[in-house]
Amino acid sequence: MAVLGLDQIGKTEIDLAGGKGANLGELTALGFPVPPGFVIAANSYAEFMADFDIPANDDIEDASAFLERIRARILDKDIAPGLHADIEAHHEALAAKRAEDIVYAVRSSATAEDLADASFAGQHDTYYYVSHDDIELMVRKCWASLWSEEAFSYRHTHGIEHRSVQMAVVVQEMVRSDISGVTFTADPVSGSDTVIITESSWGMGAAIVDGRVSPDQYIVDKENRRLTSIKISDKKFMVPSALSPDQQSRLVEVPATLRRAESLTDDQIDEITDWAMKAEAHFGGHQDIEWAISKGDLFLLQSRPITVMGPPDGNIPSGKYVLFKPIAENFTDPLMPLTQDVVDGLVPMMEFIHGRVYMNFDHIRALIPLKLSDADVARLVYLSAPETDKLKVSIPRILLLVIILYINYLIMGVFYRRTAYLPDDFMSSFRSYFEKVAADRSIDAPSALIHLFMKFRFFEPVGNMVLLVNLAAPRYMLLLRLTGSLLERWAPALPPDTASLLCSGSAGVLSTDMGREILDLARLAKSSAVVEEALQAYEPVEALERLKTDEQGQVFHEALSGFLAKHGHRALKEFELSSVRWEEDPSPVIGMVRNYLLVDTELDDTEAHVTAHRDALWQELTETLADLPLERLFRPRLRILRFLVERAKYYMKLRENSRFYHIMGFYAVRKKVLELEASLLDRQVLKCKDDIFYLTWKEIKDLDNGVTGWSDVEDIIRTRRMEHIRLTKMVPPKTIGIPFEEATELAGSTMSGQGASPGRYEGVARVIMDPATDNEIKPGEILVAPYTDPAWTPLFLTANAAVIEVGSYLSHAGTIAREYGMPCVVDVSNCTSKIKTGERIVVDGTHGAVTRLEEEAEG
Amino acid sequence: MLEVILFLTGVHFMMVLLACIYRIVDLWYRISDYWIGILIRFVVVLLLNAVVLSALGEDGRTAFLWGQASYLAFHVVAFWLTRLGLLIVDIVRR
Fold first, then answer.
1. Which residues pair with A197 in a beta bridge?
2. Chain A within 8 Å of B91 (Cβ-Cβ)?
3. Burial degree of A133 (CB within 10 A; 0-12, 13-18, 19+)
4. What percent of chain A has pLDDT over 70?
5. How do beta strands A392-393 and A370-371 pair?
6. B59 reaches A (C-beta below 8 A)
7. Within a 10 A sphere around the Cβ of A549, how many other Cβ atoms?
8. Which of A26, A183, A349, A826 maximizes the CB count within 10 A of its CB?
């Protein structure tokens, strides 16, 4: 039979209907809500290709030319009259049931496709919006896709004989979906089969499948069918269910009101989950299901085995590596290919693995003068604390370390002295340097980084060397430790976190100033009913547009412009070149202002309270020291402690403020990339915004110079985009090649981490994964986050404590928490998945522990 | 041994002196506020240098001065070598 209805096909008929067709046929027979359609059987393809004389794999010489010839021939040749008649008959049968014209989705269904151990997913074509008149053309195009370079290469790599693969084509009524998505009945990244993961977004499914949109994600526990996690994304683009006549691109912008709205209701999640479980039960394996919702009705479009389970194995270099925490604690997502390429090679002893920065362990190990196991060294490097208490010293390594430290002292000594006593604004000259480099067209993106961070004149002011200033700042930790040791010796009765408390509260820290300035914007907004209403009632872009015509709105605009002039280079995930800066889109800033408008937070009260507590501590310390010899007379110990504390505060501020400026450097690089992107889009050498970040610099230059064109990079971009999505879902291992056990739970309901800001607080948890899309936190709640960077600072103003999944004492979370005097525990593994919003928890920042009270009560 | 220590001391003094000189550059943007402090530092460092030199014997003085000269040369050469290295990195990356 040349053409079969979906209701005539079973799952065993893969040879006839291909994997996709067979699965859809099976689902139809079982009553699954599958859109009606028919399948052009694989034997039709075989008959069509009978006179093509395809040689054996080994006999194919010039593959590119061969493939081009075959594809051209397939598209030229007419379909047999018998097949044409069958297609017409099936179309008439479907059309009779519809009042309006049917539009089809034409999908390839290769006979080797969708098998559990060899997936061609995405390599054979699918066509949407196909009218009746174009069915046969699209069928031939599907047949031709079997002979694309990608599909050919895949078969060749997997040893599949080209002549053996057949192609069926599924022609199905296209669901004009309002919402579409993909559901996995196991986690394809971790391999866990205890969860069902659903990803959804607006419009047609092509945007999700193609990786163009970040979908919402819903995770359901398979056993009890409870929704355990929701992540709502900023859904910027969609493929609409109907194309307008003048529409050039299928991709359109999602209306502002829908971008951050939940795409699925609870009932819809339940319905999708039910059908997914049924599909899994029937097919007997984990399923990857595409579905669509149109006018409230759910349709299943595809169900196939999940073929990629577990983390990617390939491309991991041999050797031992430790995750570079100073980057990882700022964001946990993999860096984009362009960012990796631009930064690569500039940082010694570092490598990019799966988009994350890792340190070469062997290089570090050589410098540590202690006799420790690899795991203990890794723990020391990652957590700053080996598990072993008794440390044995290695004499040869000490000598090597001393030599290296002395060489470092010779090279950097002058620089360290230069940065020792400078006023708060000594780096402000970097801003004009950044503007100069950004505007200089003779400097390209990678060179901009070198210019800004490493290329300096002999008498360059140290304020222009912001990266080196950042590297000079960790003296803070040494001073803090020394202060702690002296306090332990001289005032043992004082709390163990006294040193941390005394060393916090520096004025002039730019990231804390930023939080205050956002609060000032909120106060200004609150002082005007018009502004407050506009910001709360409309999405940021529309609100700002409306405020332009109002007098008070203009005042707000001016204040916002002033804020952006200073902080506009900031963004979430600041080290990532693809991150949109606040200057380009102030929506996140407006979001934070809006958050303040919803609550009554008085920062002045918070700061006054913290300052009073610190002053009381100094008083107590003075009184405690007074009993020691010579103290009343000369106060030597108090003077020493004040000196150490002031120095520690100074270097901490140096670190934070230098970071403010070196992020500015990254923005200069981004500006240059965006300039080039605009030119490439204009010339149609690139088709979509942000695709440029999936290419290396050389690939971009080749595009710019005409050496390559869109067709050369299209597949590369697509492949890297899909890979990036996959890597984003993967939790990066802390070590590679070194066994590393996570810190054990202290007790069933208590999670351990590192205390980054002392104190104890009990309250309600608020899990926030992305402050751009979810930044509502009530006063008194406890912020639980995967990481934080300065863009999260305003959330700290509202929260009373913080629990962070990846971080360190010196991380942004720790620094800001200490500034605001709130308990904070960092490096709490999996806290964002274990702790739920609304749950009561206790945060003990002094001992680095987080206790879940409800679980404790149940236990 | 004493001469080695004096040599290394000379190295350190030169570092301090260079940092003082650089301070003029680093604080040039607010020189009217800081010039007195810069001057005082410079004078103190020079005086200390002079005191040390005058307190040392001929051999000690030689070692100390060699330490200072060596470090000055090292500082200049290290700077230019770094610039050369970065230039090479920039060219290779292009």
1. A184, A219
2. no
3. exposed
4. 90
5. antiparallel
6. no
7. 8
8. A826
Looking at residue A124, its amino acid is: H
Taking a C-beta distance cutoff of 8 angstroms, is the pair A721, A350 a contact?
no
Check residues A483 and A364 and name the one with the higher pLDDT.
Answer: A483
Which pLDDT does position A784 carry in this prediction? 94
- Mean pLDDT rounded to a whole number for chain A: 84
Mean of the pLDDT values across residues A678-697? Answer: 91
- For CA atoms B78, B83, B88, B92, the dihedral sign is positive
Please give the pLDDT value at position A58: 80
Identify any residues that bridge with A357 across adjacent strands, giving them in sequence order.
A352
User: Would you say A841 and A857 are in contact if contact means Cβ atoms under 8 Å apart?
Assistant: no
- The residue-averaged pLDDT of A490-511 equals 85
For residue A551, pLDDT over 50 is answered with: yes
Q: Kindly state whether B25 is in contact with chain A, defined as any CB-CB distance less than 8 angstroms.
A: yes
CA distance A223 to A204: 30
**Residue A589: exposed, middle, or buried by beta-carbon count in 10 A (0-12, 13-18, 19+)?**
buried
Contact B78 A458 (CB under 8 A): no
Q: Report the gap between the CA of B54 and the closest CA in chain A (Å).
A: 25
Alpha helix ranges (H) inside A291-384? 325-328, 337-343, 361-367, 374-383
Residue of A nearest to B23 (CA): A418
pTM, two decimals, is 0.78
Burial A820-853 (b: 16+ CB within 10 A, else e): bbbbbbbbbbebbebbeeebbbbbbbbebbbbbe
A793 phi/psi in degrees, rounded to 5:
-50, -45
B35 has a chain A CB within 8 A of its CB: no
- Selecting from A414, A447, A459 the residue whose C-beta is nearest the C-beta of B19 gives A414
Strand order in the sheet with A216-221: A227-231, A216-221, A195-202, A179-184, A287-294, A297-305
Residue of A409, A412, A415, A418 to mutate, interface with B, max B Cβ within 10 Å? A418
Q: Is B93 on the interface with A (CB under 8 A)?
A: yes
**Token pair 């999908």: residue:** A107
